[in-house]
Amino acid sequence: xxxxxxxxxxxxxxxxxxxxxxxxxxxxxxxxAIMSILDVTVVSxxxxxxxxxxxxxxxxxxxxxxxxxxxxxxxxxxxxxxxDRFGTKRLYMIALMLFTIGSGLCATADTIGELIAxxxxxxxxxxxxxPIGMTIMTRAAxxxxxxRLMAVLGIPMLLGPIGGPILGGWLxxxxxxxxxxxxxxxxxxxxxxxxxxxxxxxxxxxxxxxxFVGMLMLSPGLALFLYGVSTLPETGTFADPEVWGPMLVGAxxxxxxxxxxxxxxxxxxDLRLFRNRRLTIAAVTMFVFIIAFMGAGLLFPxxxxxxxxxxxxxxxxxxxxxxxxxxxxxxxxGVLADKLPVGRTVPFALLLIVGGLFTFTQLDAxxxxxxxxxxxxxxxxxxGGTMMPIMTSALKTLTGHEVARGTTLVNILQQIGGxxxxxxxxxxxxxxxxxxxxxxxxxxxxxxxxxxAGLAIAAQQRPELAQQIPDPSLIQRxxxxxxxxxxxxxxxxxxxxxxxFIPAAFLPRKRERSHLLDDQxxxxxxxxxxxxxxxx
Length: 536
Prior knowledge:
Largest sheet: 2 strands, antiparallel
Strand content: under 5%
Low-confidence stretches: 1-14, 516-536
Mean pLDDT: 81
Strand order of the largest sheet: 1-2
Structural class: mainly alpha
Distance between the termini: 28 Å
Shape: globular
């Protein structure tokens, strides 16, 4: 691919320090990354609020996360082509505008369908912010300073899982759910002005063709398939056309995409890379892990809010230990990934996650907060030692132009895994909760039967309801059933993490040479680093 050349000064003659001009550019990118990453985690604590606000099932409101991550996956491969076609500065500002406009529209949503649609628009902008931002930073500083740049960009990556739920919880408590989106408007406006002033100008250049046909098969295919799955709790059977219809069409589109992707010279996803055994093993390990970990991650705040009756701020604070654990081990794992084969470190990190997650398979309505927070911290320690080493292993054996395509493949698999995890776990939880005994003679606003678990959850969020119920044991029975439903869903996540040990056993256990910046392969370092790893 033709693109603006990167400065080719010898590393020995160039300072490794980031000068003021580079830091000014980095400031724009970090601001955009904070917006994008925070908005993934901020919404996690709002899902129960969306349930009550829009009178929707958990599986339905989880699409505010699923739709967002699917939109991210859609634009990741598009960003490299568009950067050449429209110029990085112009495209970055377009992405900021899309994200900011999408945020504003989310705050105006009157139905859950509108909110999901606006979240997709937000994701289309947010998905381009990180890869385009990294391209701009790499060009500004040169590949020899990429390590220092990643350290700067690592700040929002580490703070997002901690600050997002706390910020979201606080905004919902002191204002309303609308403010988790409205807060992006002033930040987005500042980022746009900052980008206009700070980012260097570049010109659009000829670029390789983009696989629009592949995109029109993969993205709708995944969305339709997951929509069919998420409709299952409402219909209660696979025989309903609203379930099997979208699933069948979606699966057909995805299968067609797999066969088609071997034909174009520049496919949306280069599945030929799976001929590389180490890349395949690392990708499979990461995909299964992401489904389990990201899916389970959505359930933590919902348990605190719906079963324990905590405020959204307290729910965000209770989740923070997981982010703190990841913050401790992620830098250590980065260092170890350069010194030790990932096959010798990742299994130990997975054991930490298994140990921490087991606590949640035993949940009841009164489980100790000390035990829960300690388990979340242990899970965070494991997460910090799992994600980046696996992604590093996936890319280490690639050379030249393969690195850009391999990074795109790994990033999209990560986002798809998150979407699948959110959809699957929300469907299982919704199905479990619907199994709660119905209360005779009591119906909801639409005539549907009210279950013991549903009434207990409503009473936790609106304590005045509990005072109107003559039988206090009914609330306790409902909470016990709800806690068991969460525990059952966590068992599924636990099983998936155990399943991750199978591909992880084949991760490299010997030192492997990195080709990420191997100029002898004929690859352009700027091109190789064009689409960086994205961790939400």
